[in-house]
Amino acid sequence: MKNELRVGLVVIAGIALIVLGTLWMHDWSFTSETRDVDAWFREVGQLQRGNSVKLRGVPIGEVTEIALDRRSTGVVVNLNIDSDVVLPEDPVVILAPESMFGDWQAEIFPRSR
User: Fold this and answer.
1) Which helix (H) or strand (E) holds 18?
2) 3-state DSSP call for residue 111?
3) What is the spatial distance between Cα 60 and Cα 18, in angstroms, rounded to a whole number?
């Protein structure tokens, strides 16, 4: 009976480790709160759900949804960003490649820049 209990505990610990590792790899947090921000574009290139959102080069969120705007000929991109981040006064979002491997990012800048 003791061997079965040990095997069961090892299996449960392994499953818990896999779940927690996956959450950690996805930057999931129990404490941080986020807010949704919509941005409108004519086209989005290779942007995909899960791509990073950055402010001054620092990751502050991710792209959560990309959809055609039914009211116009544009595209609406939903950005999920950390709620404690202070955005520039008149923000704009620029979509650009993040790496040479095809990853894209949404970078937030002040319009004056």
Assistant:
1) helix 2-25
2) coil
3) 25
The tens place of each residue's pLDDT in the chain, 113 residues long, gives 788 999 999 999 999 999 998 887 776 666 668 899 999 999 998 999 999 999 998 999 999 999 998 888 899 999 999 988 899 999 999 999 888 888 899 999 998 87
pTM over 0.90: no
The residue type of 46 is Q
User: What is the edge-to-edge ordering of all strands in the sheet holding 34-41?
Assistant: 34-41, 75-82, 58-68, 52-55, 104-110, 91-97
Q: Look up tokens 């942007």; give the residue.
A: 47
The conformation of residue 45, written as its DSSP 8-state character, comes to: T
